[in-house]
## 1
Amino acid sequence: EAGVTQFPSHSVIEKGQTVTLRCDPISGHDNLYWYRRVMGKEIKFLLHFVKESKQDESGMPNNRFLAERTGGTYSTLKVQPAELEDSGVYFCASSQEWVRPPEGPYFGPGTRLTVT
Amino acid sequence: GNSVTQMEGPVTLSEEAFLTINCTYTATGYPSLFWYVQYPGEGLQLLLKATKADDKGSNKGFEATYRKETTSFHLEKGSVQVSDSAVYFCALSDKNRGSTLGRLYFGRGTQLTVWP
């Protein structure tokens, strides 16, 4: 079974540009999460989808970040315009809890974003 | 609120030594608890988890027991190997509308290095 996949693995952009990160969860997982780890800091929650609905977006830092999950499958996270402090590793995770025991959350390999 | 306090690293051990990484938590409800591991150059991998008090999670020789009375979830392994060298993260997941897999709150991570 394929795990959580993320694209791209690395992205280097200039301040003010736009970047879109993609996450494909494990097939059948209704829950999809975005996290990020800024250099030297903790891994922080950004938001949580249940299918196509935003269950919790309290971790989104500001309105430059937009996440979507149309159709309840893959998700995108867009940063527009990017700022220097957005640099870090962005992780996606998925889980399926309506089984016993609950599955996951399982994380993808992450996208390393560098804003110069 | 919810938070995780994890033993500061780095931890350096000789092969076959006993490992303990302490983790305590603060939570408003009855969270699920997790240990994730990040090997060099890779993403986060779910190592083990426990979803209710007194449950023991185990995987690859690692164990952790959910202790509600001490709000702890310490990670242990009886005999570490060089291949266990990685960063270990303790995390909790709060409940969300009755679910058990809401957002994760992470500890800062503990770097483990095992020498032959």
## 2
Amino acid sequence: NAGVTQTPKFQVLKTGQSMTLQCAQDMNHNSMYWYRQDPGMGLRLIYYSASEGTTDKGEVPNGYNVSRLNKREFSLRLESAAPSQTSVYFCASSLSNYGYTFGSGTRLTVV
Amino acid sequence: QQQVKQSPQSLIVQKGGISIINCAYENTAFDYFPWYQQFPGKGPALLIAIRPDVSEKKEGRFTISFNKSAKQFSLHIMDSQPGDSATYFCAASNDYNTDKLIFGTGTRLQVFP
């Protein structure tokens, strides 16, 4: 099925541990995004990539790094997880800034 | 840095009623205004969108009303159904900014039979 695939779906980390969230799309979209969703805060942009080889910071980039490995894949890395990073993370892609396609999310808990 | 303000935070509507969600924006350069629908455990999905050259767009039971002078836009769900129970996000972007949508904080809609 065409779309955006995120792995893992659930993850529990201890404070200070690191992990990488994976995202892949098969729609040949140029742009890819990482958002976090927290209650009452909506969707906040962490990082985005307008095209292969480029990445830029969004609204809440601190504590995160990203890699646009190729046109299909865009990963999000937490180098040293903190409880404040407990959230639901969504990857999205788009051909332009219209019509984002979102993945089903990764629910991350940092204890 | 909240450039799109959404209200209410939650909404309870009886089946058959009209659900209305409002958004206001600050950046006059915004020229694309989509609404996304999110069911529990799923990612948001594009529901309907409008450009500022029209004041209203209707798709089935869903209508966007747009007021450029007031910098406001709203989603109306007519004949609301229990299956419409979801979280709704408004968003905005600038056509000249090819990068990103700015989302509102979301409205949790519950439609009771």
## 3
Amino acid sequence: GAGVSQSPSNKVTEKGKDVELRCDPISGHTALYWYRQRLGQGLEFLIYFQGNSAPDKSGLPSDRFSAERTGESVSTLTIQRTQQEDSAVYLCASSFRTGTHEQYFGPGTRLTVT
Amino acid sequence: QQQVKQSPQSLIVQKGGIPIINCAYENTAFDYFPWYQQFPGKGPALLIAIRPDVSEKKEGRFTISFNKSAKQFSLHIMDSQPGDSATYFCAASMDGGTSYGKLTFGQGTILTVHP
């Protein structure tokens, strides 16, 4: 079956603009994670969704970042008033259920803020 | 206490060599330690994972060694091939509680295997 897909693959935006990044998880995967990968760095956890439970937003770096998920399907990560330090690859991962089970990553969205 | 420290940052070996990448953690509540492989332009893919109840796990040419008392674990790649050239990340997570399996990643190691 299809893996995790993300769109767009690349996004260039001007400082101060809002951007929306999309993630389509693997069908049937109830858990969904967003991570950020800065150039040459490891991945940083941003937010986690599990079914209809309240999301874990503990990794969001500021209130300019928000995310939504519709049921157990698509998720969108929104960054408002983008700053240059937001430039990074944003990765989405899904897993069959919570806990320490394999997370399948999408190819990421490369965001460049000019 | 949530950090995972990875070394070296980069590694160059000849084909057939055995690169070793090391990771150390502080949080003793971590109970799942995966290694991810990432090629340029792609998302990370799970390579192999271990839990602290075993000291070694082998899958094909990839082996994880785990030292619970030292809070360290390492990845060994036997008979390395040019196709193994990629960035490798160690990670750690804990089941249950409020962490929901979210992964804490090391900084990554860029491995180059020369033909």
